[in-house]
Write a structure and sequence with these properties.
Elements: H1 2-23, E1 31-32, E2 40-44, H2 51-55, E3 64-68, E4 74-75, E5 88-90, E6 98-99, E7 112-114, E8 136-138, E9 160-162, H3 171-178, E10 186-188, E11 209-211, E12 232-234, E13 256-258, H4 266-272, E14 280-281, H5 290-298, E15 306-308, E16 331-333, E17 356-358, E18 366-367, E19 381-383, E20 391-392, E21 405-407, E22 415-416, E23 429-431, E24 453-455, E25 463-464, E26 477-479, E27 487-488, E28 501-503, H6 514-518, E29 526-528, E30 553-555, E31 580-582, E32 604-606, E33 630-632, E34 654-656, H7 667-672, E35 678-680, H8 693-701, H9 735-775, H10 779-782, E36 791-796, H11 802-814, E37 820-821, H12 823-826, H13 833-842, E38 844-851, H14 853-856, H15 859-873, E39 880-884, H16 890-893, H17 897-905, E40 909-910, H18 919-935, H19 940-952, H20 958-966
Parallel strand pairs: 2-3, 3-5, 4-6, 5-7, 7-8, 8-9, 9-10, 10-11, 11-12, 12-13, 13-14, 15-16, 16-17, 17-19, 18-20, 19-21, 20-22, 21-23, 23-24, 24-26, 25-27, 26-28, 28-29, 29-30, 30-31, 31-32, 32-33, 33-34, 34-35, 36-37, 36-38, 38-39, 39-40
Antiparallel strand pairs: 1-2
Helix pairs in contact: 9-13, 13-15
Membrane topology: Single-pass type I membrane protein
Family: Belongs to the Toll-like receptor family.
GO cellular component, one term: plasma membrane
């Protein structure tokens, strides 16, 4: 049943994790290491206290997991149950105090478990029971006081156990707990509280390295053969340990024994044990003066390829000190002593075959000339690091001509003689870094024809003179970084025919000399110019790299004091093979669209902190970087990107955009980067609004792209909210409904607007003008009673017909006591023309429209007839009279809908033309009819009474009827109807 339940839990865990893999590629507390194929994860400084919360969304494909520097105090049971593929689990530097006995269940593939630097004081005996394949267990720097005898019982494959810096006291119980570990090879128990090696069982025969340094051992108290199979035994800094404790001890397999800072006597140790002298580290055994001579006497019959004599307070070595020793062939280490001089290495008088000599951390102040030394040594490697050497005289190494490695770094060398390195024709590596050198000369390295690496970093060199390196034809690495170089002479690099790496960072160079570096074009692959004083004042500068077609790595970061600022056009022209370019901290004003055009082989581009203020990358800036894999643009002030910026970056895998000013990011841009696997958007002020709804959904559903620490990104515009879960429901609508509603509304409006325009245009216009008049306090006067009308008729005519109005109409009507309103005579000066028209229409009993072709073309005339017709139809006021000066075809009147309507409802008058048979009598009849119409009442009841009287009236003049019938034309164009 238990196995069935376990299998069911595993299946559920697999399903859950696979769903996460399919639908989410962001982690709450962890980051997947790029290009690790979902196998390596780091969860560092995530400020979580619950381990299950931290690792819950890590993919089950993980093989390496690091959870460090968090606030974890307790490891719960089944914490890693879904991570059954783990082979390495690092839980160091947390605050772990307790671990549940089932915490590591289901980790059957685990090989490395690191629990160091925590506060663990005890461990349950079954806590590691499921870790059958564990090979390395690190428990150092905890508070363990004892080890359960069954703690390691199931770890049959364990090879390394680290228990250093705990509080262990019982060595016997510890040995009992590891006695069945047949593959254990390394056990570290240093910095504990062991006082004896008393034991109740034996060490595993496989144990080869046992570290017991910095304990409180005062005796060993172990069986004589207890350490028989140990090869490396460190008992150093057990200050109470004496020689007698080793008496009779079987150390036949020991290959490295450390006893520094104990009371053990080297001579007695050789007498008391069967250890081979060549396997003893003689450091810290107070072997100075006579004691060292005596030691060599004990070693006279033994082969000692390596002698370690560190920390023995040795001050002086004479020529006979090592003569009683057998030949020391490999290495002699005299570091951390008190030597003030080497005396041209006379103490090696009897050691002709020694290859490596280390005299580091001593008190040497000077290396004197050894030109007169008759003895030549076979040394190949010599190190004087960490001394106080101030000067190196000429021929200082003439007695060691076979040197291939010379280390003089980390001293205070201010003077290096021209001939100091004379004779070192086999030297391959020379380190002079971290000294006080100010000058190097053209013959300083004259004899170093085999030199491949020259390190002059962190000195005070100001000028590189001509031909300084002329003899170094095999030099491949030249490090001049961290100096004060302001100038390099034109022939400074002459002779460097094989140079591949040139480091000039942290100097005072103000320009890049294309001619100077161009001499290295055939071989140079790495050029480091970080933190110099390079800057440009114009964009039109020739590329200094035009001939450097083989350069692979270029560093131009952090130019002092304020960066490069201005980057010339085509600055990188010629760098067709460049793989890596670094431009961080340069505060560049802007990048041209052609800046990176020549960098077709570029794979890594770093632009962090390289812009001033807000940066706007131009479309096509990366158009030729098809091989680019890593692009870092941290803190550049970028607010947005266009698709054209990243258009051709088809090979891009890692994109760092953290600490920029972007409030949104177009997901279509990311979709086009088909190989992208990692995008860092931390510390960007992403808006939690609808413009980022698609980005939120995309970050949580991408199957291939990782957004590190996405769940920690907060909303700048909604404090306290997080980007990954802000509400996006309001951003989504039913698209079909939305489209139907919008198109339906648009169609209806498109159909109604022309109809409304035709039918209601003048009503709206009239209403507008009437409102204006009313607003101007005119409305009251327009609505007065009929007896208060100012005029009998308002004459609406076009200026083209003014002669007829003035010569015919005016004399006939005003001569009959009619009061007429004419616009040119009676309109109020300074008043708006529209207000005047409205006042004239409503201030007159009638409106006479003198219709002609010109009248129909006039906008003002059209307004006047429309206003009068409105009174006619809507207010039931008989106010409109139409006088046609000329015949008008129907097709022309069809546009004037309201005029045709008036003609259908009302009688209208036609001015008799010249073709009339009796013009005089026709005109007289015309004027009589017009005057009668003007005298008629405006009310509907009066109009009916007048109609009745007109029908009943006797003695109607027969000529009037004939004229009316004859001069109201009836034809196929216009239908003139009587009411």
């Amino acid at each position: 049943m238990a196995d069935s339940a376990c299998r069911e839990m595993i299946i559920k865990a697999i399903i859950i994790c696979l769903l996460k893999l399919a639908f989410s590629y962001s982690f709450r507390s962890c980051v997947e290491i790029p290009d690790s194929n979902h196998k390596i994860f780091r969860c560092v400084k995530c400020h979580e206290s619950d381990i299950t919360t931290i690792v819950s969304d890590v993919f089950p494909t993980a093989t390496n997991l690091t959870v460090s520097r968090n606030n974890i105090t307790y490891i719960q049971g089944q914490s890693f149950h879904h991570l059954f593929n783990l082979t390495s689990l690092v839980l160091d530097a947390n605050y772990i105090v307790n671990i549940h006995k089932d915490a590591f269940n289901n980790l059957q593939k685990l090989q490395t478990l690191n629990l160091s630097w925590n506060y663990i004081s005890s461990l349950h005996r079954d806590v590691f029971s499921d870790l059958h394949h564990l090979t390395k267990l690190l428990l150092g720097n905890n508070n363990l006081t004892n080890i359960d005898m069954f703690l390691f019982s199931n770890l049959t494959n364990l090879r390394i156990i680290d228990l250093c810096r705990n509080h262990l006291k019982n060595f016997s119980a510890l040995v009992e707990s590891i006695s069945n570990l047949s593959r254990l090879i390394h056990l570290d128990l240093s910095f504990n509280k062991l006082t004896t090696l008393h034991h109740s069982t034996r060490l595993p025969n496989s144990l080869a390295k046992l570290i017991l340094s910095n304990n409180n051992l005062h005796k060993l108290g172990c069986d004589k053969s207890f350490l028989k199979y140990v090869e490396v035994l460190d008992l150093s800094k057990n200050t109470l340990l004496s020689s007698k404790t080793f008496q009779g001890l079987n150390l036949e397999y020991i290959k490295n024994l450390h006893l520094s800072f104990t009371k053990v006597s080297a001579g007695k140790l050789l007498n008391y044990t069967n250890i081979q002298p060549r396997h003893i580290d003689f450091s810290g055994l107070n072997l100075k003066d006579h004691a060292l001579t005596l030691l060599c006497f004990h070693l006279r019959d033994h082969q000692i390829p390596k002698m370690i004599l560190q920390s023995n307070s040795i001050r002086v070595l004479n020529k006979n000190t090592f003569c009683n020793c057998a030949n020391i062939t490999d290495e002699m280490d005299l570091s951390q002593n008190a030597m003030k001089t080497t005396g041209c290495l006379k103490f090696l008088h009897c050691q002709k075959q020694l290859e490596t000599l280390m005299i580091e951390h001593n008190h040497l102040t000077k290396l004197k000339s050894c030109k007169k030394s008759k003895k030549v040594y076979s040394l190949k490697s010599l190190s004087y690091r960490y001394n106080r050497i101030l000067q190196v005289n000429g021929y200082a190494f003439s007695n060691t001509p076979k040197l291939t490695n010379l280390e003089l770094n980390i001293n205070i060398i201010a003077y290096l003689d021209h001939k100091a390195l004379n004779g070192l024709k086999d030297l391959v590596t020379l380190r002079l870094d971290n000294n006080l050198l100010t000058d190097i000369y053209n013959d300083t390295f004259k004899d170093l024809t085999s030199l491949k690496t020259l390190n002059l970093r962190n000195n005070h060199i100001a000028v590189i003179f001509n031909y300084t390196f002329q003899y170094l034809s095999n030099l491949t690495i030249l490090d001049l970084g961290g100096n004060k170089i302001t100038q390099m002479k034109p022939h400074a690099f002459d002779g460097l025919k094989s140079l591949t790496n040139l480091y000039l960072d942290r100097n005072h160079l103000k320009e890049i000399d294309g001619m100077l570096f161009g001499r290295l074009h055939a071989t140079l692959q790495v050029l480091d110019l970080q933190a110099n004083h390079i800057m440009y004042s114009t964009e039109h500068t020739d590329s200094p790299f035009i001939n450097m077609s083989r350069l692979l790595d270029l560093k131009l970061d952090a130019q002092e004091p304020n960066g490069i600022n201005l980057l010339p056009h085509a600055f990188f022209r010629g760098l067709i093979s460049l793989n890596s370019l670094y431009l961080t901290k340069n505060h560049i004003i802007g990048f041209g669209a052609e800046t990176f055009d020549d960098l077709k082989s570029l794979e890594t581009l770093t632009l962090d902190n390289s812009c001033v203020g807000i940066a706007q990358l131009k479309p096509g800036i990366f158009k030729n970087l098809r091989k680019l894999k890593t692009l870092s643009m941290v803190n550049m002030g970028i607010t947005s990107f266009s698709k054209e910026v990243f258009g051709n970056l088809t090979g891009l895998k890692l994109l760092h955009l953290n600490r920029n000013a972007m409030m949104s990011l177009d997901i279509s841009l990311l979709d086009n980067l088909t190989n992208l696997t990692y995008v860092d958007l931390r510390s960007c002020p992403l808006s939690c609004g609808c413009q980022n709804s698609e980005l939120q959904n995309w970050t949580l559903s991408s199957k291939r792209l990782q957004f590190p620490y996405l769940f920690n990104i907060t909303c700048q515009d909604h404090p306290g909210s997080f980007f990954h879960n802000f509400d996006t429901n309001v951003c989504y609508l039913d698209i079909a409904l939305y489209l139907f509603s919008s198109t339906f509304t648009f169609t209806i409006l498109l159909s109604l607007i022309p109809l409304l325009y035709v039918r209601l245009y003048w009503k709206f216009k009239y209403g507008y003008y009437v409102f204006r008049s009313w607003f101007g306090e005119q409305w009251r006067r327009l609505k007065d009673q009929e007896e208060k009308y100012k005029y009998d008729a308002f004459i609406s005519y076009n200026s083209a017909d003014e002669d007829w109005v003035m010569e015919q109409l005016l004399p006939n009507l005003e001569g009959s006591s009619f009061r007429l309103c004419l616009h040119h005579r009676d309109f109020e000066l300074g008043r708006d023309i529209v207000d005047n028209i409205v006042a004239a229409v409503y201030g007159s009993r009638k409106t006479i429209c003198v219709v002609s072709q010109s009248f129909l073309r006039s906008e003002w005339c059209s307004l006047e007839i429309q206003l009068a017709s409105y009174r006619l139809f809507q207010e039931m006021q008989d106010v409109l009279l139409l006088v046609f000066l000329e015949p008008i075809p129907e097709r022309q009147l069809s546009t004037y809908h309201r005029m045709r309507k008036v003609m259908l409802k009302k009688t209208y008058l036609q001015w008799p033309g010249s073709n009339c048979s009796d013009p005089n009598s026709a005109k007289e009849l015309f004027w009589n009819q017009l005057k009668r119409a003007l005298r008629s009442s405006n009310t509907r009841s009066q109009e009916k009474q007048n109609d009745q009287r007109r029908h009943d009236k006797e003695g109607t003049d027969k000529e009037e009827r004939e004229y009316f019938m004859n001069h109201t034309p009836i034809n196929d164009e216009v239908h003139y109807l009587m009411p």
